[in-house]
Amino acid sequence: MDPLFSRLDLKTSCRALADLLMPRLCIVCGRPLNLREEHICLGCEMDFPYTRFWESTHNAMADEFNSRIAVPEGVRERYCYAAALFFYNSQSGYRNIARELKYNFRITQGKVFARRLGQVLAGAEHFADVDAVVPVPLHWTRRWKRGYNQAEIIAGEVAAALGAPLRTDILSKPRRRSSQVRSNAQARGANISGAFKANVPEGIRHILLVDDTFTTGSTLAACHAALRECVPGDVRISAATLAFVRNR
Ligand SMILES: [Zn+2]
Predict the structure, then answer these.
(1) Which residues in the chain come in under a pLDDT of 50?
(2) How much distance in Å is there from the Cα of 29 to the middle of ligand 1?
(3) CA 43 to ligand 1 centroid distance, Å
(4) pTM of the entire structure?
(5) If 143 and its partner were Cys, which of 27, 131, 138, 204 is the partner (CB 3.0–4.6 Å)?
(6) Listed residue (195, 150, 144, 145) closest to 172, CA to CA
């Protein structure tokens, strides 16, 4: 028997046995996956709500991000680019992709979708000159409790796809604020502003901020403000997330 065929056959048999013992479920609809499916079933894959924001410099997310940016006096801010991989609303199973990575340690699965985000950004001309991929940082106590920063995991995959360095040394979150999950949009904006500190080395021309989900844009706007304090207006600051929340 062809050794490759035999290896594949063994892998399939092992997966079939493992699926019998503990079925793998679609992250979106919860249906058991068949042998050929990974993380997401074919039906949910066919309906995957891609935003296609990366295809255009101007889109709903970029408009919202730009509307939240506070520009320091004397700085001429150019229109910032922004893109997310997919849409979701509170009833959509697709939100599990971001939630499972953030709250349930589903890191391998999160990386699969983060890689997709990286691939679509890599195909967009306006993200081609990104020279620093910067994850939205967590305060160290939250990172310590969770064991990882979900934004950093996504940013790692995006950086690899773009061929740009992942920079976790540029932005930090020295101030811990109350949990944002329950706060309303306005309070959330006030809560987060001024929470980040930036230190940008010379020579960087295009920073891509990365987070898991774009909800109100207040976190990314606060990161933008911290970065803009350190870099002149001709250094571009863009944003990318896995998910974009629709119908807020
Ligand atoms: Zn499904």
Answers:
(1) 182, 187
(2) 4
(3) 6
(4) 0.86
(5) 138
(6) 195
